[in-house]
Amino acid sequence: MAIETINPATGETLKSFEPMTDRQVAQQLSRAATGFEELRRSSYQQRSQWLRAAADILDAETDSVARMMTTEMGKTLVAARAEVGKCAAACRFYAEHGAAFLADEPADAPAVGARRAYARYEPLGPVLAIMPWNFPLWQAMRFAAPALMAGNPGLLKHASNVPQTALYLADLFARAGFPDGAFSTLLIGSDAVPRVLRDDRVRAATLTGSEAAGRAVAAIAGEQLKKTVLELGGSDPFVVMPSADIAAAAAAATTSRCLNNGQSCISAKRFLVHREVYDEFTDAFVAAMAAQVLDDPMAETSDVGPLATASGRDEVEEQVRDAVLHGARVRCGGDRPNRPGWWYPPTVVTDLTPQMRMWSEEVFGPVAGVFQVDSYADAVALANDTPFGLGANAWTADPAEQESFVQDLAAGLVFINGIVTSHPQLPFGGIKNSGYGRELSAHGIREFCNLKTVWMA
Description:
By secondary structure, the chain is of the alpha/beta class. The chain has helices at residues 22-41, 44-60, 62-73, 77-101, 138-150, 163-176, 193-198, 211-224, 246-258, 278-290, 310-325, 357-360, 376-384, 399-408, 441-446, and strands at 3-7, 12-17, 105-106, 116-123, 127-130, 154-157, 183-185, 204-208, 227-231, 236-240, 268-274, 329-332, 347-350, 367-373, 388-389, 391-395, 413-416, 431-432, 435-436, 449-456. It has 2 domains: 3-232 and 434-456, Aldehyde Dehydrogenase, Chain A, domain 1, CATH 3.40.605; 236-423, Aldehyde Dehydrogenase, Chain A, domain 2, CATH 3.40.309. Helices cover 42% and strands 20% of the residues. Helix 2 (44-60) packs antiparallel against helix 4, helix 3 crosses helix 4 (77-101) and helix 9 (246-258) packs across helix 10 (278-290).
C-alpha cells in the first residue's frame, strides 16, 4: 500500500511519501538504541516535564492537528479536536502518576532472610508500535505516553494512509525535549515489519489492528521471545433490557455506532434488544440514526463523515448487500451517496440470521445490526457468541441484573448504562480473538517493564 494522504471526502491524493530504505530504517533503530541509554537514565521528574511540554504543544496546536487528521482519514473536525485534547490529557495523566505506578514495591524482607527486599520496574528498551488509522493520534499516544514515561523509546509504524500524523508525533516529542531517538516514525510498508521486529534492538511490540496482523506479529515475536500487547478489534454487543431507559439507550446507541464515522473497535455493533422493548427501542434508534448529518467532515454541523478508505467503504456496502440478499430489512440508510469520496450513511439492519455475514462479522462503518432476544439468558448467549471479546454494553435499571451482566459478559471491558470508551485511568484491552495485554492505567505502563526482584543481605 502506498504511503500517502488521500482525502476521504473527495478521493483526492494530496501528498505522497517514499518508504524508508533499509539503511534509513537501520539508522532509526540505532538512534532508538542510543536514545534508550539516555532515556532510561533520566529521572521520572524529567520525563514528566517532557510529557507536560508535549501536552502544552498539543493544546496550542489543536486546530491544525485536528484538521490534519480530518484531511487524512475523514473523522469530523469536532471529533478530531476532542482526540487531540484526549492525547494531551493522557500525557498529563502519566506525567502526574507514572512515577507512583512504577515505584519500588517493598516485600517482606525478614520472611526471605534479607535486610531489604523489593521489586522494581525497569524499561525493556525500544518498542515497535504498529498502529491503525482510525484514531491516528490517540492510538499512538496511548502507547507512547506510558512507554516514554517508563523509559522505553517508541518506534512507530503507523498506517500508510496517515503519514502526516505519524511524522507529527515524532516531531512533537522532539520539540517537547525528549532525547534524540526516544521516539521515531518509520515510514515503511507492512512488508518491512517482520525485519524490524526481528532486529535485536527492538525489545517488544504492540499492535492495534486486524486479527490476521495480530497473529503474524505474535508469531514472529514468539519466535524471537519478545513481549507483545495486541488489541485486535471486536464485535461489541449492546444489550437493552426491559427496565432500561429506552430514550437514553437509543441516543447512546446512535452515538456509539456513529462514533468516528462507525470506525471504532469498541463501538457497539450488535444491538440485542429484549422483545418487550424491541419495537420501542428500534423505532427510536432508527429515527436517531436517520437524523444524523452525513456531510463535509470539516463542517461543525456534521455528525458523520466519509469512511477512511475506498476498500473499507466497499466492504461495508458488501456486508449490507449480503444481508439484504438473505432476507434482512434495512430500516434506514443502506444506499451509498452519489458523490466523490468514500461515503456510507448511518444504517440500521434488522431480521438478521446466521446465514448473513453481519451475524458474525465486525462491520467497520456506521451500520448497526439489531437482534431481538427473549430473555436475559438469550441476551448473554448471543452477546458471547462471537470470537471477539473487547467491549460490551448493557442497559438495565435492575441492580441484580447489572451485576449479572458484569459477571456473565465475556469481554475485557463491560459498561453498564453507558457506551464503552477508553480513559487513561482505566485498563484497556480484550480477550479471545480481541487480543491480550492491557493499555492505559497502571497496568498499561507496566506491560513493557522488567519486574526485577531485588534481595539484599
